[in-house]
Amino acid sequence: MKERLIGIWRLVQVTARDPEGRVIPSEFGPAPIGTVQFGEERMMAALGDSRPPAEGETRFWVAYTGTWRFDGQVLSTRVDAAHPPNRIGTDQVRQVRWEGERVVLSPPPRMVQGVMNHLELAWERVG
């Protein structure tokens, strides 16, 4: 199972939904960018909003790396370096489903600007 994830993946779509299932804007913007690389034991992900930030603001982005495991449905990464740093020492858990050759990763829901967000991040293999 793990072998299916090993490689380099490009982020192609981020879909955010509210608790009622309606599509809402995501922090990643309308044209998200990102790459994730899975090796035998370690992974690294960096992703963010491709839009230039408004004056006085910083661009939204996240990155983390660590050891990972995959049971066929759940991907869990033990984070040892990250931005934002509050992820260091945590387990980043993602539900995994396949849509053809794409993999869709779904983190646990979280509150963003007062709205509970359910994210789906779709990735295509590039290497």
TrEMBL record:
<protein>
    <submittedName>
        <fullName>Lipocalin-like domain-containing protein</fullName>
    </submittedName>
</protein>
<dbReference type="InterPro" id="IPR024311">
    <property type="entry name" value="Lipocalin-like"/>
</dbReference>
<dbReference type="Pfam" id="PF13924">
    <property type="entry name" value="Lipocalin_5"/>
</dbReference>
<feature type="domain" description="Lipocalin-like">
    <location>
        <begin position="6"/>
        <end position="107"/>
    </location>
</feature>
